[in-house]
Amino acid sequence: MRYFLYTLSFLSLVLATALYLTRARWLSRIPIPDYVYSHLPSSFAGDMEAGFSSSAFDLSGNVAEGDSRAGLDATAKREVQRIMRNRRVGFDEARRIYTEQRFAKNNIGADGLPRDPKFVSFS
Question: Which H or E run includes 20?
């Protein structure tokens, strides 16, 4: 019985070590609900503190002026946060990926022009 417990504990230790060392491969495949991570902020100051600001997307002007609006769109913030977490990218890159996904969903090319074959542009 003693050998069984030693073997079981040793195998558990080996399995835990293997899972820890390979966590980058399997951790992103586990579905984790969004509500587990955090409650999204509802003001520009909260958005800045949560990391939804950068040099290219600066919210400090809104905070300095005392802007009383609710902040950024909650659905977009949740999606950008999910992209940042899953792909391990920064805010600017996640915002770019989110925008490209929205463009593709609405049949708009990466250059901002519609993909509609009937579209006529006078430039």
Answer: helix 2-21
Amino acid at 66: G
Cβ count near 100 (within 10 Å): 13
pLDDT digits (tens, 9 = 90+) for 7-17: 999 999 999 99
Distance CA 107, CA 123 (A): 21
Instruction: Count Cβ atoms below 10 Å from residue 67 Cβ, excluding itself.
Output: 14
Which residues of the chain register pLDDT less than 70?
Answer: 32-51, 53-64, 66-72, 123
Instruction: Report the pLDDT value the prediction gives residue 11, as an integer from 0 to 100.
Output: 95
pTM over 0.90: no
Enter the tokens of residue 68. Answer: 């009383």
Secondary structure letter of residue 34 according to DSSP = G
Cβ atoms of 34 and 82 within 8 Å: the answer is yes
Radius of gyration for the chain, computed over Cα atoms and rounded to the nearest angstrom: 23
Structure token digits, residue 119: 């579209």
- Here the tokens at position 81 are 């946060």
